[in-house]
Backbone:
């Protein structure tokens, strides 16, 4: 009996290690050292339970983490929920992860990690995305987040952050205009007085 050996690749970053195991798809003329059919994956995080599963779990986890990272960069808060994973950034800065099993009577696994671990996991996924020997369509995993319309702004943020600087600029402009006006009038009066003092023939009549 011929037994095909699986290929295995690991991706590491500080507190995290991602291991992917699988086989090439010879029907697509894959090389012997490539993986198109992922049979198993394992994610190890320092001081956390080991996470493993099939391809569906892996895709759900990657999709959730990339979406959470993108929302954080856009300064937007949103709880990410799906059939296999929930991911939320708490106000304390801790990421709460709930992994759901497809097997019956298996309780969800809850993890709580910090920003450093979250960043390390993203780094491992980036390594996987750029690794040509493992074929995963990341186009369906990267987030498609709609940009906020220019007209849909937060009124309180606008009043608190935009209006005060505008008022300050307006006040400075008015003050500058008044100062220039007064200085010009003063210079004009001084010039007139100077002309009068230099011309004794000029008579000033006071009515």
Residues:
């Amino acid at each position: 009996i011929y037994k095909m050996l699986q290929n295995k690749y690991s991706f590491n970053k500080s507190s995290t290690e991602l291991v992917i195991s699988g086989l090439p798809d010879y029907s697509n003329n894959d090389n012997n050292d490539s993986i198109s059919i992922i049979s198993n994956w394992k994610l190890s995080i320092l001081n956390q339970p080991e996470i493993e599963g099939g391809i569906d779990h892996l895709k759900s986890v990657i999709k959730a983490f990339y979406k959470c990272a993108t929302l954080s960069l856009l300064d937007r808060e949103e709880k990410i929920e799906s059939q296999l994973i929930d991911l939320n950034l708490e106000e304390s800065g801790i990421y709460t992860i709930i992994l759901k099993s497809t097997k019956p009577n298996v309780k969800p696994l809850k993890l709580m990690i910090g920003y450093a671990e979250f960043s390390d996991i993203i780094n491992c996924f980036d390594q996987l995305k750029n690794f040509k020997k493992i074929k995963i369509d990341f186009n369906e995993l990267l987030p498609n987040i709609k940009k906020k319309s220019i007209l849909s702004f937060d009124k309180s943020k606008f009043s608190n952050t935009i209006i005060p600087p505008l008022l300050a600029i307006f006040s400075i402009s008015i003050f500058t205009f008044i100062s220039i006006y007064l200085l010009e009038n003063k210079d004009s009066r001084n010039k007139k007085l100077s002309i009068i003092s230099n011309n004794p023939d000029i008579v000033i009549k006071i009515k």
Observations:
- Residues 149-153, 202-207 have pLDDT under 50 and may be disordered.
- Strands lie at 7-13, 16-23, 37-45, 51-53, 80-81, 85-89, 95-99, 109-113.
